[in-house]
Each structure stands twice: as C-alpha cells, then as structure tokens.
From TrEMBL:
Name of the molecule in the record: Exonuclease domain-containing protein
InterPro entries cross-referenced by the UniProt entry: 3-5_Exoribonuclease, ERI-1_3'hExo-like, Ribonucl_H, RNaseH-like_sf, RNaseH_sf
Segments of skewed composition (Low complexity): 262-279
A single MF term (Gene Ontology): nucleic acid binding
Annotated SUPFAM superfamilies: Ribonuclease H-like
Keywords: Exonuclease, Hydrolase, Nuclease
Region (Disordered): 236-279
Regions that span the bilayer: none
Amino acid sequence: NGGSATVSGGGGGGGGTGRDDGGYKYWLVMDFEATCEKDDRTWPNEIIEFPAVLVDPTTREVVDEFRSMVRPTERPTLTRFCTELTSITQDQVDGAPELKEVLQSFDAWLSSHGISEDGALSIWCGDWDLKTCLPRECERKALHGVVPPVLRQWCNIKFPFCDVMGSKKRRGMDGMLGELRIELVGHHHLGIDDSRNIAKIALALAARGGVESVAATSHARDVSMYRKANGLVRAREQAAEAVPPQPLSPSHVPAPAPAPMSAPATTKPAAAAAAADGA
Ligand code: AMP
Ligand code: MG
C-alpha cells in the first residue's frame, strides 16, 4: 500500500441533513496513527495514518472509505517501536502528503458525501485523537481553520459501550471486541483496521442498545483548528437579517435570544461524564 491518498468511491451527495429517524445519516469511524517512541510521553506525536470508514447506520453498510498516509515533518524517521506497533513503514510515509494537504483531501471527500459540516457522527476509540493528538499537532504547525467542522463533536465509543453493556470498566478496542465476541480483523494499531473494527463495535452496540445509544459524548473546546462552518454561519446571518429591528421603548420586553443553530454537544452520558478523559 503506497503512501498517497487512497480514496475510493465518492459522489453520494445528498447528506448534510443531520439527524434522521433519531440517528445520524452517517457514522464516520476514524482512528489516527502517529509517530511515537516507547515510554516517551514527551514525544510530539505527528499523525502518519488518517483513515475514515463511512457507515450508514440504518443499512449497517460501509458506504465508502478514506485513507491517506501522512508524512511527518518534525521527526520524519519512524522509530522501530512505531513501525512494530502500527506496521507502518518508512516507505509508506516518505511519499505521503503532509497533514495540511491530507486535511484538505479529507474535507473534499467529506463534501462529496455532503457531510463536511454536519450530518455525520464521528466515532473514535477514546478522546486522544481529537482532544490531544490533532489539536497539539495543529498548534505546533500553526494549522488554523483547516479541520472539517463535522469533527467538532465526536463519540468516544467507550462510553456507549459501558452504557449498553452495563460495564463499569472502560476497555480498549480489543477488550470491547472480545466482550462482544467479535473477531479482531487485521492489524491492531493500523488505523484503517482499527477504524473497521471500531465500526463493528458501534454496529454491535446499536443492535443491542438502539442506534441512538451511539451518540456524541464530547465536543471541542478550542475551535481554532476547525474551518468555519459556512452553512451554519450563513444560516445564522440570514436568521438575524429576517428579524426586523425592535423599537426601543420603556415598555419593550426583549424577545428571548434565538436558539443557537448548533448547541454544543455536551451530551456525555451522566455515568460517562463522571469518569475521566476516556482516551
Ligand atoms: P491506537 O489508536 O491505539 O492504535 O494508537 C494510536 C497512536 O497512539 C499510535 O499510532 C501511537 O502513536 C500511540 N500509541 C499507542 N500505543 C502506544 C504505546 N504503547 N506507546 C507509545 N505510543 C503509543
Ligand atoms: Mg489505532
């Protein structure tokens, strides 16, 4: 598998309608792999694999996949530990585009499905990818306004897993697969295989607990890395224009502020909210 973007399918259009029958039109199941060194917590992780599996939760089918390897620039040579963990080789990243370009390709792929701003729930195994890894890398590389807005909120699948399975112990991907009696297919810690396996966990939880049990658990607090959501901004501006100016008189009672177009997804379940990060 070469280093450049492997984007199959496309087209689709149609999306962007947000929730449908109580669920999202699509799930976007993702899992980054990054440079690393054993026992080194100070290592500045750079994303080296950027995969996404687009699932229709209604039909339970994989609609499309996006995958690109990413070339690290801060520490371009992969450690032996990193290659052993992920199975990703130096050759695969050497010919790959840098993160900014991959984010742009990913955004275009999302747009081809109508979901770059909303209409899909991104699902991850933990909070590390969107809460720590990507924000820190974007900060170090001064990448602002480049991440598709659909990733401003996400589902950490460990929380629905605990809710649906009645489990107090949060498990890693392999532990969740084991408890659900689902075979781990492919190489654990290779992003595309992890994403496909996490998608199976999400589908199994939806089958047991209903599709709405797989919901947003977290949202971004710092939005500087995200591209502005054009659709939402335009809709807000139009809503503001549609309201005629109110006369200012002593008897004037201000109308309640219009509801925000997109409330922040602080929808972490009570049990989950009490727990820590969940990465
Ligand atoms: P995962 O999603 O569990 O495959 O891990 C994502 C990324 O976290 C990996 O690509 C590594 O950069 C880092 N990582 C995972 N496990 C370890 C570990 N045991 N030691 C150091 N880094 C790790
Ligand atoms: Mg992984």
